[in-house]
Amino acid sequence: MVFAPGEKPGNEPEEVRLQNASKQIVQNAILQAVRQVSQESRQREERANDNRGSFQLGVGQLTKKHEKK
Question: What's the pLDDT at 61?
Fold first, then answer.
């Protein structure tokens, strides 16, 4: 095996290190985006469930008010 000047056995060439760092950055960005989308979807679903519950409760209350009259 031949090493470039300043390169030690076991050390990766600069280009390989940069490629690996770039891959890691992309993987981290994708993971963060997936987590964010998942969290936003979960929050939307929770809000939708809360709104449905409020709406149903409101309808029930209106019905009761009309029954009293």
Answer: 55
